[in-house]
Amino acid sequence: MNDENSNNYLLEMKNITKNFPGVRALNDVSFYLKKGEILGLLGENGAGKSTLIKILSGDYSLEKGEIYIDGQSQVFLSPHESISAGIRVIYQELNSFDSLTVAENIFADNIIQNKLGIVSWKKMNQKSKEILRNLGSQIDPAEYVENLSVGGKQIVEIAKAIRRKAKILVMDEPTSALTERDVEHLYEIIRKLKSDGVSIIYISHRIEEIFEITDRVVVLRDSKKVGEKKTSDTNRSELVHMIVGRDLSEQYKRREIQKGNVVFEVKNLSYLDRLKDISFSVKEGEIVAFFGLLGSGTHTLFSVLFGDKKKTVGDVFIEGKKVDIEHPFTAKAFRLGYIPYDRKEEGIALGLNVKQNITSTNLENIGKGFMLDRNTENLHANSWFKKLNIKAPGIDTPSKSLSGGNQQKVVVAKWLEKDSKIFLMSEPTRGIDIGSKAEIYEIAEGLCSQGAAVLMVSGELPEILSVSDRVIVMKDGKVVKEFITKDTSQEELMHFATA
Amino acid sequence: MDGKVLEKKKTSFRLTDTLILLIALIALVLIFSLIRREFFSYDNISTMLKNMVITGVLALGLTPLMIARGLDISFGASISFSGVLMAYLYNLGIGLPYCLIVGVAAAVLVGFLNGLLIEKFDLIPIILTLGMMSILSALALVMSEGRSLSMLTDQLYYFATRTFLKIPISLFVLIIFIIVFWFILTFTKTGRTIYIIGANPKVATLSGIKVQKVRILLYTFMGLVTGIASIVMVAMTGVGNPLAGAKMALPVLSAVVLGGISLAGGAGSVWGTVIGVLIVSVIFNGLSVLNVPSYFIQVFQGLALILIVSLYEVRNQRAARR
C-alpha cells in the first residue's frame, strides 16, 4: 500500500454495512482495487464475501456505505446498472445458456442483426472467434455450450464479459470444478486480462491459488475486514490464521483407527457406458477416497451405489449379503447415507428449516404410526445440532440462511439421524471454508471410530492424502489403480488419473 | 457468530400471508354489506356457503397435490363424467348406493391414472390432465347424448336442502374436509413428506422418500375428492349434467393460488386455501347480489386473481433483493 492516492483506484467500496433479518452480513467493510490488479478475496463461508459481491453486482441493494468507480460515486439499483458500469461476476454455478451456441452466449444480450433484423451468424461467429482466440482459446463459436467442459463454459463466460468491455471481473471460486490443465489455462487467461488492464477480484478457498495468481489479498472474517496484504508480503500460515482466526496446527490431524470386517463390497459393476466393471471393497473404520478428473465416473458411481441411477450389471454386498439397491429408499434401509455433490440442489432442501431437513430421512421414527411427534423431532434435531456444532440461531432457522459449511453439516446430520453406517460422500467439502472442512473430516473420522465406513469422492489431492486410508483412481468409468494413501503422492495419483 | 445474531421478533411468513388474505376477505365482506344490506342476510350467506362446498372441496384436494408440485385440471370434466355415469346407472334402475360407489370409483380411477402416467412417464401434469379433461368431457357428452340425465332421489334431495342447527348439511362435508386436510398436512408424517417433496423433489428422493408413490397417492386422493364433489353436484342439481364441471377450473384454481399455493410447490396451507375459497365465493356472490351480469363477474374474478398473484410476486422479489 505505497500509494494512498485514491485517484489510482478503479473501484473503491467504503464502509459497506449490510444487515439481514437477525444477521449482520457486512460490518463496515472497505477495500479498493487498482487498474490491472488481481485482488484475492478470502474468508470462510459466511464471512461476507458473497454479500459484498452481490452488492457490487446490484443483486443486493446498498444499505450503508459508498461505492466509487473511477472516482465517480455509484449507487447500483439493479444488476443492469452494475453491468453498465463495467462490472461482471462469473459465479461458481455458471449461468450459461447450455442449449445455445458459444457465439449466441457471448452475444446473448446483443445479438448481431443485419438491416432486415435477421441474425447475422457469420459476423457473430467471426467476432466471437476473435475474442476467444485473443484469450488463447480454440473453442469453436458454433459449438453448443452443453458440449463444452466446465472449463470451456467458464471461458465462454469470460469472453462474454470481455465483449461487454468489463473493467472489473469478479470470479467466484473459478477453479472449483476444473481439472488441473483447465486451471493452468485459466491462469493464462487471467494474466492476459491483467496485462490488458482488466481488474480482477478473485475469490477462492484454495490458498495455493491465491499465491499463484493474486497481487494483493483482502481477508474477511465474521462480516468484518480482518486483513489486507500484498500477496508477496504474506505467507500461507499467516493467511490461514487471518481466515480462521486460529493457527494451522490446530487444524485437522488424523488419528489411527482400528479397521474391522469388510462391510461394503462391489463386484463387476457397470452402468450404461459410463461405468465399466468396477470392483472394490471397504472395511469398517476405513475412509476410501475416489479420485478422478471430470468425467471419470466417480460421481456417477456414487449415485448408482445409492440407487439414484439403476446399475446395468454387477453385484453389491453389504456385510457379506448380496443386496439389490434400486431406489434411495432401499439404500437407506441398508444403512447407506449419501452426501451428494450438488449440495443446494440435491443435499439440502433450502425451503425447509434445519430441523425439517435433519429429520427428513427418518420420519418413520419421529412419532408413532401416522403422527409426527414435534417433541421427538425437536429432541432429535437439537441433539445433532449441538453434536455437529451447527452454527445457526436454532433448529427452526431456514436452511437458506446458513453458510455452505453449516448446510453441509445439516446434510451429514440427516444421515446420522438415520443411523447410517456406510457413508457415500461426494465432494463433501466442496466450496466450504477451512474451519468447516476440518470439522467435516473430524465427523467422518468419528464415524469411522464407531465402526462406520466412509467412501469419499474428492478432487482435492491434499484432502485425499490427509484424510483417506486408501485411494481408488478412476478414469473413463474404470478403476485404474488402487493405492494405500500413505504409500502414494499427489504426483503419482495425478499421473494415473490423467495417463 | 453470536455477536451477529441481532434480537429480532420472529414472524412467520405464512402467518402474515394468511393475515393479509383474511383482511382482504373481511374488507370485501364489509364493502358488499355496506352497498347491499341483504348481502349479509342469513339467506344469502347460507346460499353462498352452500355454493362454496364444491369449490372448497376441490380446492382442498388440490392443496396437498400442488404443495408436492403436482397439478390436476381434469377435475371439472371428471365431475361431469361421474355425475353423468351415476345418473345413467340410476336411470337403468340400479340402486342408489351402487350408483354413487361406481361414480366415485370412476373418479378415483381417473385420479390414479393421472398420477400413474405423469409419474411413470415423467409427463408435465398440466398437459396430461388437459388430455384427460378432453377425453372425459367427450365421454360424458357421448354417454348422456348431450342432455342432462335426471337423478332425483329423496336421500340426495334431503342432503342438498336440509339444515342442521340452521347450517346446510352439505356444508358439513366441507367442514369435515377442512379438518381432515388440516390434520393431515399439519400433524402427520404424510403431511411433512408432502412439504419435503414440494421443497425439493430431488432432495426428497435422495433422502429415501418414494416421491413417485406419494404423488400417485395424492392424484388418486384428488380423484376421490372429485368423486365426492360429483355426488354433491348431482345432489344439488338433481341431474347428471355433462357440462356441470366445465366452468369449475377457474374458481377452484383461483382459490388455491389466492390462498398462497405456488405453482413452484413447497408453500401453502389449508387455511390459506380456505380463505382463498371464501374470497372467490364472496366476490362471485357479492357481485351477483349487486346484479352484475355473470360474464362480468368472471372478469372481476380474473382481475382479482391477477392482482393478488402480482402482489405475491412483487413481495417475493422484494424479499429476494432486500
Describe the structure.
The complex is a heterodimer of chains A (499) and B (322). Chain A has 499 residues and is an alpha/beta fold. Chain A is built from 17 helices and 20 strands. Chain A has a 6-stranded mixed β-sheet with strand order 6-7-8-3-9-10, with helices on both faces. Chain B has 322 residues and is mainly alpha-helical. Chain B has a domain of 206 residues. Chain B is 75% helix and 2% strand. Chain B contains 13 helices and 4 strands. In chain B, the strands form 2 sheets. Chain B has a two-stranded antiparallel ribbon with strand order 1-4. Chain B has a two-stranded antiparallel ribbon with strand order 2-3. In chain B, helix 3 crosses helix 10. The radius of gyration of chain B is 21 Å and the shape is globular. The interface between A and B is large, with 43 and 31 residues.
Question: Briefly, what is this?
Answer:
Chain A has 499 residues and is of the alpha/beta class.
Helix and strand topology:
The complex is a heterodimer of chains A (499) and B (322).
Chain A: E1 9-20, E2 23-34, E3 38-42, H1 49-56, E4 64-69, E5 72-74, H2 79-84, E6 87-90, H3 102-106, H4 121-134, H5 150-163, E7 168-172, H6 180-195, E8 199-203, H7 207-213, E9 216-221, E10 224-230, H8 236-244, E11 262-271, E12 275-283, E13 287-291, H9 298-305, E14 313-318, E15 321-323, H10 328-333, E16 336-339, H11 343-347, H12 354-358, H13 374-387, H14 404-417, E17 422-426, H15 434-449, E18 453-457, H16 461-467, E19 470-475, E20 478-484, H17 490-498
Parallel strand pairs in A: 3-8, 3-9, 6-7, 7-8, 13-18, 13-19, 16-17, 17-18
Antiparallel strand pairs in A: 1-2, 1-4, 4-5, 9-10, 11-12, 11-14, 14-15, 19-20
Chain B: H1 13-35, H2 42-67, H3 75-91, H4 96-120, H5 125-144, E1 149-150, H6 154-161, E2 163-164, E3 167-168, H7 169-187, H8 189-199, H9 201-206, H10 211-237, E4 239-240, H11 249-258, H12 270-289, H13 294-321
Helix pairs in contact in B: 1-12, 2-7, 2-8, 2-10, 2-11, 2-12, 3-4, 3-5, 3-10, 4-5, 4-10, 6-10, 7-8, 11-12, 11-13, 12-13
